[in-house]
Amino acid sequence: MLTLNFTEFPVLTTERLMLREHALTDAPALFKMRINEDVMRYIHRERPKTIGDIETFITAFNEGFKQGQHLAWVIALKENPDIMIGSIGYWRTNFENHRAEIGYMLHPAYWRQGIVSEALKATIDFGFKEMKLHSIQANVSPVNNASKEILLKHGFVKEAYFKEDHYFNGEFLDSEVFGLLTPNH
Fold first, then answer.
1. What residues contact 89, with CB distance under 8 A and at least 6 apart?
2. Keywords assigned by UniProt (predicted)?
């Protein structure tokens, strides 16, 4: 069975980015993203009410990493690693089947610059090589064309379309699941 037992948080670097652990000092930036309707348009999660809500979220998330439940990174530019511009990571880990769901968000000021794509490549590589995942899935709103394009660019394939499979903000919404198998196959 898959386990996520890292002795310390794995910091990843790419040409332009540093992917690092969430810190409580990231709470204001994450709060701004989580209440930004452009960022959250296709992310069907309750909006935080206060920065304190985000601090609680970060603390719980970091504790979940220590318990080997999930792994998520702050996306920051190498030249300014203390400033959070987005996040990417794995959750809903299916340990028995060596599968995890990947998700990401990015501040709109950094959209269409290849940042999510660069972070996605690094986290996919880490997922297969270090986490020993067999497959990665992404659950996407069917109208989120930008996210679907990024996933397809990185080799994901559409696995399923679910009609009205979740309830958010007073309505039932559809979702699409994309998947990527380890390159060994």
1. 70, 71, 72, 73, 102, 103, 104, 123
2. Transferase
